[in-house]
Amino acid sequence: IDGKKIKIIELDKLKKISSQYSDFILLIISCVIVQRFDRGLPPLTLQNISKSYNIPIRVTKLIINKLLDAGIIIETLNDDERVPSYQPAFDISKLTVGMLLNRVDEEGAGETSFRVNRNDKYKLQWDTIISARNGMYDSTNGILVKDLNIEQPNK
Asked: Going along the chain, which residue ranges are E strands?
């Protein structure tokens, strides 16, 4: 398979990534960034995270962008490489799994962009989704991301 076909296959897989699997990778990358910060290790670049944890680069980029947009992480310049690396945006002792998922879920376009009114005609559907999401957030609000130990890759 030539390079062009591989890129098309990768893009196709990226479009089909399930919400659950996306959240799983989101949590892995968040754990990596938070725990490295907690241990006083230097922040990793997008390429380092992708290679070290066997996450496809496009998926890593997608998740890093979600974390940046949600204000979970910030970009910092790595002195050695002059390439952006990533570290937590706020006190890691406050970052729970519920907060992480909630912030990422709330980021992005909604009712004002798509004009599907959630308050009248589709209130029952909206309230059902919000109730399900809140249950997920509430059940994970006591779990700190920094406490979900993740193995550091062998160098």
From this structure: 44-45, 73-77, 84-88
Backbone angles phi, psi at 49, to 5 degrees: -65, -50
CB 55 within 8 A of CB 49: yes
Identify the pLDDT of residue 4.
Answer: 52
The amino acid occupying position 2 is: D
Who contacts 65 (Cβ-Cβ below 8 Å, separation ≥6)? Answer: none
Q: CA-CA distances (angstroms) from residue 12 to 24, 58, 59, 74?
A: 19, 11, 12, 29
Q: At what angle do helices 97-106 and 123-140 cross, to 10 degrees?
A: 150
pLDDT at 118 over 70: yes
Tell me how many degrees the CA angle 46-146-50 measures, rounded to the nearest 5.
20
Residue 118 gets which letter from DSSP?
Answer: T
